[in-house]
Amino acid sequence: MLIDSTLMIDLFLVTFACFSAGAVGALITARSPTLSRVVGHGCALVGAIAAFAFGVAGLAGGSMELNVPDLLPIGGAAFGVDRLSAFFVVVIAVGAIPAALYAIGYTREYAGKHSLAGMAFAFNVFIAAMILVALARNVLTFLALWEMMSLASYFLVITESEREETLSAGWIYFVMTHAGFAALFLGFLLLARATGTMDFANWSVAATALDPTSRNLIFLLFALGFGSKAGVVPLHVWLPRAHPAAPSHVSALMSGVMIKLGVYGLVRVAFDWLGAGPLWWGATMLIVGAVSGVLGVLYALVDADLKRLLAYSSVENIGIIMLGLGAAMLFQASNLPSLAALALVAALYHTLNHATFKSLLFMGAGAVLHATHTRNMEELGGLIKRMPQTAVFFLIGSLAIAALPPFNGFISEWLTFQSLLLSFQILAHTVNLIFALGVAALALTSGLAAACFVRAFGITFLALPRSEPAALAHEADWTMRAAMALLALVCLALGVAPSLILAPLEAAVFDLMGAHADMKFDWSMVVANNSFGWVAPLWIALGLVAFLMAIPLALRLMGVNKRRRYYETWGCGRALQTARFEYTATAFANPFKRVFALLYRSVKELDIEFHPESRYFVRTITYYNEGRLIFEDALYKPLLRMIQALAREARVLQSGHVHSYLVYILVALVALLILTV
Amino acid sequence: MLTEIAIELLQLLIVMFGSPLLVGVIRKAKARLQGRRGAGILQPYADLRKLLLKEMVISENTSWIFRFTPYLLATTMLLSALIVPSLTTRAPLSFMGNIIALMYLFLLGTFFLALAGLDAGSAFGGMGSSREVALAALAEPTVLIAIFGIALRAGTTSLDGIITRSIAEPLLMLNAGHLLAFFAFFIVALAENGRLPVDNPATHLELTMIHEAMILEYSGRLLALVEWAAGMKLFLFLTLLSNLFFPWGVALTNTPITLFSAFVALAMKLLVFAAAIALVETSVAKLRLFRVPELLAGSFTVALLAVVSAFFIR
Predict the structure, then answer these.
(1) In the structure, what pLDDT confidence band is assigned to residue A3 with cuts at 50, 70 and 90?
(2) CB-based contact, A434 to chain B, within 8 Å
(3) Above 60 in pLDDT, residue A564?
(4) Which of B61, B144, B310 sits opposite A440 (nearest CB)?
(5) What single DSSP character describes residue A476?
(6) Any idea which of A226-235, A262-271, B86-95, B207-216 has the lowest mean pLDDT?
(7) Quick check: is A109 in a domain?
(8) CB distance from A566 to chain B under 8 Å?
(9) Which end of chain B is more exposed for a tag (fewer CB within 10 A), N or C?
(10) pLDDT at B142 (0 to 100)
């Protein structure tokens, strides 16, 4: 089907008209919070739908080249779409459509306390900037939009500025995103200088002529910049602070969509701009991915803050995506292009899937927060009876993220496993060992993720409420539920009919790498590498449904006892059952804390205060068990101390005398003139 | 077409009705080794029948998840029975998934069972859930590395393909890596099915329970479904162990003679495994809970050795 390029331009303009209308409209109607909330987010919703249509058209083969000269220096603002960009626009839209719908209902509680118009404005700018980043085609366009995206998200993160932790989280996010930006800036400029052009289109050919040292340096800079945005360990420290602090629809967007733009950048660098690199690039990615996956989920397992748990889980899933990316790079460096394409398809599919189920989970957490005003799992419980529909949606999100059939997480993890297992075709022992450890890491991550979400769903929604607010919770309003229902349906659809997305994804990877992925799929089955492995997700889903209906029927036909009696939970003869007897979130995580104690290095303190007159009577017992933040202590604090020490030394230059400043200017001017001439 | 359906149905029926018998045989063997007479090998059937005739007592704190989980457990096991090649490699529905898909189906059941354990709001259930998911998570790397080891030798991860390849090259089975992978998989089978030395299926002490603690609140037909599903899981794991690692007797074609000999071969192999499990359970004491990760780490190392040996002996 030939997509007319005028159709593409029309869709592009409609998208941006909607976002601009949303941004401006929110500001105009600032007087009336309800109106600005509905107008701002409603226009964002329509714009996101248009963006989805644009992305689908791009995946079907449509192309577009748009150049706005004079908007930015050196070449103007250049936009273009190829299949990879279109895929990421689809990912953004899949996250943004439910987020905008959700925001209409969710932001109601901010009325009167914060500027709804400001939130809606920043929301529109944020989504528009993300879409444009995926479509940017020269250096300055990319960087300008990247910065706009970071700033818009910063303002959204610090919405609840009355809390000190929000401001501190926003500040850390701000600094880390700009440190990453600096690395990106340097990398882009070095690459542009080496290849002589600022346009992305010409880089893939010109970069092959670069010398290895500069290529490695540029790769490292890009890896640092895009990696910090994606949230790989050890550059992840901003994620568990910023995502919980932001309002839930923003957390959903940031976790589900924004960090994927870091993945987009890495895919561009490894497969488009810099071309095939040495083995150590892929190996580093794979190892970083494995470490991020395991560490992310381990930190999620011991966290009692529901949203911070989800943020760490995002770190874990980025790790899984990096595993696929690293595998693809290793295959490419070993001259196995079809396997590289398979691994890349797996990584990109997981990117889309994570956008869907992570957004769903954050929205569920937001509904819980909205109803109970607490994120602490130790105060929740029993919500499945008070918020039944939200519970079902959160359960679907948990099943999807734990990679269980018949949902989408299962298919993308299955594909990632298959591509890692196919590494035996590489005949280098070190690489084989790295892949084997990657398989082990992915398996451990997968199992721990299942455990993590049993805990998250079980403690939050099941059994009895552990506090008054949880006992009085109410169901979320219809916009929030509709948004979650939409995402839950998408999770199921992508899990049962993966060929819907595999076909365009495979085409996108073919455009990028020039090789077809080593897989076959049709409406019911996915086959990897001819006969290495196969799975039929639709049949599994049908089989599950069929047996689920057949078993009760068979039991009824057999004439089993149908009577049931409701009574108290077994308490060993104890007469009273209260919420204090339930298992807590901290207790649930205890086995993991003990097994991985070396990693958590928790600080434990036990203070017992006795009655002054007799040690037989205990007044209070205080138990303190906190995991230490290893990366902050070991990596960031020394770095910060060093920077502060250097800054103190450099203070000598700030003498306060105008004359010395004039001398500095003269010296700098003369030096610049000498260097350039 | 009709024969294919009949064969698939036969495999399903064998798993459905054979698993209580397997459980009964293991209990009888254990009893004999412990110097007791023990109940008859058909006792589990009587137990299931008794449970089905009893009224269910359900805790007021539970939600629909509690009532849904036993049905889901039985469903995942029945679906797995269609995929696992117990008699023949030419079952028509085996295309549904390879060995990795099978492991994830088992994990689906574990996930819901852990949720059901938390649902009643009792400390025992929560404890059982917490321990169960911890051990399941720690067993995952071993399982997948063992699968990697098997797939390296067989060149495929599909169950039928592995068996066909192993039968075609019998010397493959004497390979050191093959036996290492078998050993690792055996330890995982013990862990996943709640057998000693990981978990005592016959304990009455709640604080020592893992699997039993999660199902403490179940009664009546829900408990019958849970016990039956646990039996089927054991049956399927042992079938996998016998047919993947020692595939003698598995039918490669669907003729009555090959199917009958496959049935006899399966029965004999399961008998040997039942005796082995009874022996292990009688001679080994239950490990302290926080020693089990060490056992699993050991089995992981063994599986990794299996994989590494495959790389170096190519």
Answers:
(1) low
(2) no
(3) yes
(4) B144
(5) P
(6) B86-95
(7) no
(8) yes
(9) N
(10) 94
On whether both A509 and A653 belong to a single domain, the answer is: no
The verdict on residue A445 lying in a domain is yes
CA distance A11 to A262: 25
The domains of chain B are located at: 44-84+95-247+283-312
* Minimum distance, in Å, between the CA of residue B180 and any CA atom of chain A: 16
Of A518, A547, A566, the domain-final residue: A518
Q: A385 with A478, same domain? A: yes
pLDDT in tens, A490-527: 999 999 999 889 999 999 999 888 888 888 888 888 88
Residue A241 lies in a domain: no
A377 and A487 together in one domain: yes
Mean pLDDT of A421-450: 93
H or E element: which one contains A534? strand A533-535
pLDDT higher than 80, residue B214: yes
Q: Could you tell me if A303 and A278 lie in one domain?
A: yes
Contacts of A577 in chain B (CB under 8 A): 61, 121-122
A331 & A446 share domain: yes
B297 burial (CB, 10 Å; 0-12 / 13-18 / 19+) is middle
Looking at the structure, tell me whether residues A604 and A648 fall in a common domain. Answer: no
The tens digit of pLDDT for each residue in A260-284 reads: 999 999 999 999 888 888 999 999 9
- In chain A, % of residues over pLDDT 90: 67
Q: What is the mean pLDDT of chain A?
A: 91
Contacts of B310 in chain A (CB under 8 A): 424
- Name the domain count of chain A: 3
Query: Distance (Å) from the C-alpha of residue B76 to the closest C-alpha of chain A?
Result: 7
State which residues form the domain around A319: 271-518
In sequence order, what are the beta bridge partners of A626? A603
pLDDT of res. B256? 87
Is pLDDT of B314 > 90? Answer: no
Of A491, A518, A545, at which residue does a domain stop?
A: A518
* Interchain contact, B308 vs A444, CB within 8 Å: no
- Specify the amino acid at residue A122: A
* Closest CB to B148 among A382, A421, A589: A421
The tokens of A527 are what? 């086959």
Say yes or no: A437 and A340 in one domain: yes
pLDDT digits over A229-259, tens only?
A: 999 988 999 999 999 999 999 999 999 999 9
Picking from B95, B114, B161, the nearest residue to A454 by CB comes out as B114
- For residue A251, give the nearest of A132, A172, A171, A358 by alpha carbon: A358
The pLDDT of residue A1 is above 70:
no
Tokens 């502060």 map to which residue?
A: A644
